[in-house]
Structures are given as structure tokens and as C-alpha cells.
Design a protein that fits this description.
- It is built from 7 helices and 9 strands; from the N terminus they run E-H-E-H-H-E-E-E-H-E-H-E-H-E-H-E.
- It is an alpha+beta fold.
Length: 191
């Protein structure tokens, strides 16, 4: 999110876990068309390769399970969902690179088209369960895009936990968000 202007929000540390709801409900990230899922995870979300291999076990692109994160590429408007290992037989079958992936080969993401002219694109993201808990604070610190109205609704119940919001009080910031339209960039830190 380095190329997107982000509003800075500082909150009390006890507010951190509440943001998991927003990460699971959905937010947006900017990447480049043609970047692989692995590159998105590594460069945009800041996940290390070992963490990707060990912990990010469930990935969906446009509701299709992804196995090979090096040969599936993003494009504008993609919806990406991430999670850790899911429980049960369905979780095992939908997980990345498992012995049972042949059971779902017809619905798996297979995109080996390489885009030659990489341009900035926005993708919608959801990070679920323990993955949101483990990485949420870091993801928020790197910056995300959210709909201004959704952020205002979300922060309204957490106004007292806002230390500073781009030089404004929580109440002033929420009022300003209510007058905005579309997606805005935010970086959230906790103290």
C-alpha cells in the first residue's frame, strides 16, 4: 500500500482484536495485475515465505480453491480469501496442495496466463480465523483500503478507543468519514 495515501489511526491496544471482524468482513488491497498469489501475500501483505507455506493453508480466488500460488495471478476485481487449515474433511479437501485435491479439480483456480503489462489493480480481501488473529495487526499497520461508510460504522462503537485519527478526535474522524464516498486508505497502529 506504499503507493496509496493512507489516513493514520492510532488506537488503544485493547481495540486490536475487534479489527478481526473487519478483516473477515472484507477490505481491499492494491497490487499489480499479473502478480502471483504468492507475490501478493509476500509483497503486499508482508507474509514471509515460511509463514505462507506453514500457516496460509486455505486460499480462494473468486471462490475457487488455489493450490499453486506461483501460477495463479491476480487481476482487477479479484476476490481473495485466506485462512489457516480448516477442520474436517471439507477443510482438508479445500486446503492447499493436499492429497485429495483431485476431488475438486473441476473447481480449482487454474490461471497460468501471464500479464505482460502490469498495472495497478484493486482486489477484495478477506482474512479468516486464526490467520486474522495472527497477522491482523501487521496487515493493518501496512495499510488497507476500506469503504469510508463501512469504516465509520465500524469505528462508531470503538470511538473511545481511538487515540488519534489523522490529527482528529475519534468523533471528528467518524463525522468526516460519513461525508466521504468510496474507498480510503488507512494505516492502523495500536498502543
Amino acid at each position: 500500500m506504499n503507493n496509496v495515501a493512507c489516513l493514520k489511526i492510532r488506537m488503544m491496544s485493547e481495540a486490536a482484536s475487534g479489527w478481526n471482524f473487519l478483516l473477515q468482513k472484507g477490505f481491499f488491497l492494491q497490487g499489480k495485475s499479473g502478480m502471483s498469489i504468492r507475490t501478493l501475500l509476500h509483497e503486499v501483505l508482508g507474509y514471509e515465505d515460511d509463514f505462507i507455506e506453514q500457516t496460509v493453508r486455505t486460499i480462494f480466488q473468486n471462490f475457487r480453491p488455489v493450490d499453486n500460488i506461483d501460477s495463479v495471478f491476480i487481476k482487477a476485481g479479484d476476490a481473495i480469501a485466506l485462512g489457516g487449515a480448516m477442520p474436517g474433511i471439507v477443510g482438508i479437501v479445500m486446503g492447499r496442495d493436499n492429497p485429495y485435491k483431485s476431488f475438486r479439480s473441476d473447481i480449482s483456480a487454474h490461471d497460468e496466463t501471464v500479464v505482460r503489462d502490469a498495472v495497478p489493480v484493486t482486489v477484495s480481501m478477506k482474512i479468516f480465523s486464526t490467520l486474522a488473529v495472527e497477522t491482523g495487526v501487521d496487515v493493518l499497520g501496512r495499510g488497507i483500503l476500506v469503504e469510508a461508510s463501512n469504516l465509520a460504522d465500524f469505528l462508531e462503537k470503538k470511538e473511545k478507543l481511538i487515540i488519534d485519527a489523522d490529527g482528529k478526535t475519534g468523533c471528528q474522524f467518524i463525522d468526516e468519514l460519513r461525508s466521504m464516498e468510496g474507498k480510503i486508505g488507512i494505516r492502523v497502529t495500536f498502543e
